[in-house]
Amino acid sequence: MIERYSLSPIKDIWGLKEQYQRWLEVEVAVVRAFEEKNEAPKGTVDKILEKANINVEKILDIEKVVDHDVIAFIKGVTENMGDEARYFHKGLTSSDVVDTAWALAMKRAGELILEKLEKYADSLKKLAIKHKYTVTVGRSHGIHAEPTSFGLKILSFLAETERNIERLKTSIKSISTGKISGAVGNYANISPEIETLALSYLGLTPAKVSTQVVPRDLHSEFFNTLALMGAGIERMATEIRHLQKTEVLEAQEPFKKGQRGSSAMPHKKNPIICERLTGMARMLRSYTVSGFENITLWHERDISHSSVERVFVPDACMTAYYMLEKSIYLIDNLIVYENRMKETFEKSYNLVYSQRVMLGLVEKGVSREVAYKTVQENALKAWDERRDFKTYIMNDDRITDKINKEEIEKFFSNDYYLKNIDKIYERFGL
């Protein structure tokens, strides 16, 4: 991931020294299990921790010779050890260490992402409460439809976020899976009991069946969840991008003092955060392809997945984290123009109330077909002639003979459209 989008603390997980530290955690957990099962002398772990030396440059120098990163790690870390080195990597294969360490990294990254996702949900909740009764035009196909609550728009993003929180919790549990089962996963040189003990020290669970690697469908589930989360953020960002259009301007990204929108046009305030979030959601979706393709490996294992994971696993996690950080800032500082929302109704000449008039006729005994045609005729005239829809309704005898003008006035009230808002909010405990 480029530095521009790399934020601490999640970027700190993916450094080379941190990778070696996780490998050491796995190796030590296995030796600790040996000790507990009396397969290694007491105190072996202490000696290993005392003498283990993670010197990144030295390990890389060794790798240049041996051309194998795990062997280079073992040689570098154990160079100062005595007899205790016999128990370091005993019965293990490289994937036991690498895959279990991947699980640690993804679990820790997932927990940081989950924490941010829950904060994002809190931000959405606050904004939804603030604008519970803020009336705005609802749109379908990009066209004015009927009045709704701006808070209800935000609640739809919150509902999706809550689903993604549950998905993420489930996928974090799935990726918290390691394997210490040997070269082809048959425990020939290490016992299932050692695996269970060692992984328990790391907060992981054993794969029910592994080959030489942890099954990659578990990883794929996690990255699919991140992509779903990104799609939810993109949906929110796309809504704001539309609302920030000059001819709409019902909402707007925060614009900091000293910020500039264009190098050429001083007047510009562009929705750069929302556009960035939209682009990054595309990246998250693209990573799912790599996740799927890594599931199929030859026989018990090949390493076609390895080079791919080294790139997209850290990038996907950091992208998701960055998106959440920016989304929280965006929602917490969103500018909402309530007056512009009211003015928007005039731009479609109050046509958004057409269904109320039609249903009013139906309630008076007019067939739905006749009612629809009568209202549509007036609506199309209002649009073509750019005049208030209500004026046409008030002057159509086919309508006023059935409905008095006082009743018609009520059809153009927004209160009707918000009558069940409280019930929807109650579903969220609000």
TrEMBL record:
Keywords: Lyase, Purine biosynthesis. The keyword Ion transport does not apply. One of its GO terms (biological process) is 'de novo' AMP biosynthetic process. Pathway: Purine metabolism; AMP biosynthesis via de novo pathway; AMP from IMP: step 2/2; Purine metabolism; IMP biosynthesis via de novo pathway; 5-amino-1-(5-phospho-D-ribosyl)imidazole-4-carboxamide from 5-amino-1-(5-phospho-D-ribosyl)imidazole-4-carboxylate: step 2/2. GO terms for cellular component: cytosol. InterPro entries: AdenyloSucc_lyase_C, Fumarase/histidase_N, Fumarate_lyase_CS, Fumarate_lyase_fam, Fumarate_lyase_N, L-Aspartase-like, Pur_lyase. It holds the Pfam family ADSL_C. The keyword Hydrolase does not apply. Its EC number is 4.3.2.2. Residues 349-429 form the Adenylosuccinate lyase C-terminal domain. It comes from the Bacteria. It catalyses: N(6)-(1,2-dicarboxyethyl)-AMP = fumarate + AMP; (2S)-2-[5-amino-1-(5-phospho-beta-D-ribosyl)imidazole-4-carboxamido]succinate = 5-amino-1-(5-phospho-beta-D-ribosyl)imidazole-4-carboxamide + fumarate. GO terms for molecular function: (S)-2-(5-amino-1-(5-phospho-D-ribosyl)imidazole-4-carboxamido) succinate lyase (fumarate-forming) activity; N6-(1,2-dicarboxyethyl)AMP AMP-lyase (fumarate-forming) activity. Belongs to the lyase 1 family. Adenylosuccinate lyase subfamily. This is Adenylosuccinate lyase. It comes from Tepiditoga spiralis.
